[in-house]
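Cast an eye over my tokenised protein here and flag anything odd:

===
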Amino acid sequence: MEDGKSIYFDNAASSWPKPEPVIRAVERVLRDAGANPGRSAHHLSVEAARIMTEARQEAAALFGTADPLRIVFTKNATESLNIIIHGLLRAGDHVVTSSMEHNSVMRPLSAARDRGVSVKVVRCSGTGELDPDDVRKALTRKTRLIVITHASNVSGTILPVAEVGAVARDRGIPLCVDAAQSAGCLTIDVEGMNIDLLAFTGHKSLYGPQGTGGLFIRHGLEEHIAPLMMGGTGSASEHEEQPLFMPDKYESGTPNTAGIAGLLEGIRFVSSRGVPSIRKHEVELLARLTEGLAGIPGVRVHGPTDPGSKIAVVSFSVDGMDPSEVSFRLDEEHGIMSRPGLHCAPSAHRTLDTFPGGTVRFAPGVFNTAEQVLTALDAVSSIVEQA
């Protein structure tokens, strides 16, 4: 599944390659079912609507909700998070988050702060771990929302979502989880984990196309969350007011039907392999990678050392070398694709004490192999020796 020599270790940014059924599904829609779903009665429109419905059903099943209408399709997790943060929070409200968040959370919260929302950032440990009791202590009578990432895109650290969910449920505060890095590689049960709002993207561990994603909204919360945009939905067209029912309230405009068809097949790919099986494979790669990097003199691995406490993301730095130089040489000299820098998560890097220089990030996925890990370790060793 690779081009012959290159190794793709940038799956935390976007998974590659895509499963063949994903590619074929996108092509089939563009060739044979490219009409607007829900807007017409002809057979092409009906077929497009069927694809949307099946994708909603598959996503609902994957995330543990019995009602597919709780799933809203968006173009990515960032849009989903913006819907929640801008649509729910009002001036005078209080929100709690963690110091390991991506800018898809931090930037909307910064804008919310400018509107009069109070933001409390709970400090995580130097390896990115969050204590649920610190979240509990940060809550006030004005807390309107808790928003945390499920897994860090920088260190891979898995945050205790279920435990925070129990705290949130006990206090009657909605919990929003950023599952951009975890959907497809960690088990997610919105009911069992007390997740009220789940933002996910399609192009990472769900192996769908870029420009696809979604949002789970627990029943009743849509009454308090304004849509990010309004317009045609193909429903209630006799009214000039936005529909208030799910999922139409948040799905204005022509959807990315071809992309969602690809996402449908990506979810089916994950479901057929099984999330536990995918997790087992990635943990095995992660253990080899973490241990191997830690054993190279001059290399520092950031974040947890226990592969069971993180997703398949490893951030490291090389003494005396800029991360961009290391990443460039990995690509140019060894055909290994990684990502250097701050990874759109400066708060996480401050937590890990890797700001402002950042790190080099390896992120293997389901199509990577143990042999590729060994090749990458040899490449890092070679670069360090020549430094």
